[in-house]
C-alpha cells in the first residue's frame, strides 16, 4: 500500500504551469527540487465529511493510488509520491508529454498495419501486466492511451487515468455501470459481474477505429449506441476496410465477442498471428495493408471537438446535479468525468445512460 505523506508538497517540488484541470482538481507540471526532474502533480480536492458534495471521496483516491502503486510497468504511467493535507491529496506522476496516440497517428500521411501493430503490442503488454495483477482498467479509450515522448524514434505507449480501475479480490463478484458508451462491453451495460475481459472488448473497439476511422457501435444517440452493443450490430464495411488485412479483421472478431469467457485475453492477443505472424505470408500481408488515414483523420477531428464540447456539458450538469442533491450522501456518478491523470475527458457515464435506456424501452 502506498504511503500518504503528511509533508507539504511544495517543500519537495516547485509548482509549475497547469497542464489540465477538472471539477475536483488540476494537473500541474512540477520540478523536483533535489534532482531537477520534471513530474506531473495531480491535485485532488477531498471531501471534508461523508455528507459533503465538494471534492472526491478519499476511499476512491486511495484505491486509485493503491492500483498505480501495484502496477509499476513501462506501459503504465508511473506513480512516484503521494502527499496529503486536510483538504487535498497530491499524486506525483510520471510526466507524459507526448500527447495522445491517436493525435500522433492523425498527423501522419500514411501508416502501415505493421506500424499500427507496434503500438497495439505495447498497449497489450501494459494491459497484460495489469491483468496478471488482477487489475482491470475499465476506461480504455483513445484519450487514455498516451505517448511518453513523441520526439523519440520509437515512442513509448503509456496507459493513464485509473479512476475507474479495480483490483479484484479472490472470488469477488464486482459490478459497475460506469464508462464511456462506445467503448464499454455488453456485460457493463447489463450490470453483470465484470472481469478483465471487459478491457479486451474495449481493445477490439479501439483496434476497429484505428484501422478504419469508424466506430463499430456508435450511433446518433448514446442510447442507440448501447443498443447496438447489446445486439452486436457491427460490420466490416468495404468502404472503410478495403485496405485492411483479413488477419486484422480476425483479431477484432475474436475480441468483439459477447461472452466475456470467449474473448481473447491480453496474453492470447499478443500471440494472435496479426500481432505475431507465424508464417512469412502472414507477415507480408501486414506490410501490404494500411489503415484508412483519410477517414481516421476525420474521426479524430470529430473526437477532439466532442471532448471539448462534452466536458463543458458534463461539468455544468454536475454543478446543477450537486445543487439538487446537497443533502444526499450517495457518490455522484458524474464525478470522475471531470478528472484525468493528464487532461479533461469526455462524455456522460454509462450509469446514467443505462437508466435512461431502460426507461425508454
Strand order of the largest sheet: 1-2-3-5-4
Spell out the helices and strands N to C: EEEHEEHHEEEEHHHHHHHHH
Question: Could you give me the name of the CATH homologous superfamily of the domain at 101-298?
Answer: Transferase(Phosphotransferase) domain 1
CATH topology of the domain at 101-298: Transferase(Phosphotransferase), domain 1
Largest sheet: 5 strands, antiparallel
Strand % is 5-15%
Q: Could you tell me how far the N terminus lies from the C terminus, measured between alpha carbons in angstroms? A: 44 Å
Q: What is the share of helical residues?
A: 25-40%
* Oligomer state of the chains in this structure: single chain
| Record field, number of beta strands | 9
Mind explaining what this structure looks like?
This protein has a domain of about 200 residues: Transferase(Phosphotransferase) domain 1 (Transferase(Phosphotransferase), domain 1, Orthogonal Bundle). About 40% of the residues lie in helices and about 15% in strands. It is built from 12 helices and 9 strands. The strands form 3 sheets. A 5-stranded antiparallel β-sheet has the order 1-2-3-5-4, with helices on one face.
Amino acid at each position: 500500500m502506498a504511503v500518504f505523506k503528511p509533508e507539504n508538497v511544495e517543500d519537495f517540488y516547485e509548482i509549475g504551469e497547469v497542464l489540465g484541470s477538472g471539477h475536483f482538481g488540476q494537473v500541474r507540471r512540477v520540478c523536483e527540487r533535489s534532482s531537477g526532474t520534471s513530474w506531473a502533480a495531480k491535485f485532488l480536492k477531498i471531501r471534508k465529511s461523508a455528507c459533503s458534495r465538494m471534492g472526491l471521496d478519499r476511499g476512491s483516491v486511495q484505491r486509485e493510488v493503491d492500483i498505480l502503486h501495484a502496477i509499476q510497468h513501462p506501459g503504465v504511467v508511473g506513480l512516484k509520491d503521494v502527499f496529503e493535507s486536510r483538504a487535498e491529496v497530491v499524486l506525483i506522476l510520471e510526466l507524459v508529454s507526448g500527447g495522445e496516440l491517436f493525435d500522433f497517428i492523425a498527423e501522419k500521411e500514411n501508416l502501415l498495419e505493421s506500424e499500427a501493430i507496434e503500438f497495439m503490442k505495447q498497449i497489450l503488454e501494459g494491459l497484460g501486466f495489469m491483468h496478471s495483477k488482477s487489475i482491470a482498467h475499465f476506461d480504455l479509450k483513445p484519450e487514455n492511451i498516451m505517448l511518453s515522448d513523441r520526439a523519440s524514434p520509437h515512442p513509448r505507449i503509456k496507459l493513464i487515468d485509473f479512476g475507474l480501475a479495480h483490483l479484484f479480490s479472490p472470488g469477488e463478484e464486482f459490478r459497475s455501470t460506469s464508462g464511456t458508451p462506445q467503448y464499454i462491453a455488453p456485460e457493463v451495460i447489463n450490470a453483470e459481474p465484470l472481469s478483465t475481459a471487459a478491457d479486451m472488448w474495449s481493445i477490439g473497439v479501439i483496434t476497429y477505429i484505428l484501422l478504419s476511422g469508424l466506430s463499430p457501435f456508435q450511433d446518433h444517440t448514446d442510447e442507440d449506441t448501447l443498443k447496438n452493443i447489446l445486439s452486436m450490430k457491427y460490420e466490416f464495411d468495404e468502404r472503410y476496410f478495403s485496405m485492411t488485412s483479413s488477419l486484422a479483421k480476425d483479431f477484432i472478431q475474436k475480441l468483439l465477442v459477447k461472452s466475456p469467457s470467449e474473448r481473447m485475453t491480453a496474453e492470447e492477443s499478443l500471440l494472435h498471428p496479426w500481432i505475431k505472424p507465424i508464417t512469412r505470408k502472414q507477415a507480408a500481408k501486414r506490410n501490404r495493408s494500411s489503415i484508412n488515414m483519410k477517414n481516421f483523420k476525420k474521426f479524430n477531428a470529430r473526437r477532439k471537438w466532442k471532448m471539448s464540447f462534452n466536458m463543458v456539458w458534463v461539468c455544468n450538469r454536475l454543478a446543477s446535479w450537486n445543487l439538487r442533491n446537497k443533502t444526499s450522501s450517495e457518490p455522484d456518478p458524474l464525478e470522475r468525468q471531470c478528472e484525468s491523470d493528464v487532461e479533461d475527458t469526455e462524455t456522460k457515464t454509462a450509469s446514467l445512460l443505462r437508466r435512461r435506456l431502460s426507461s425508454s424501452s
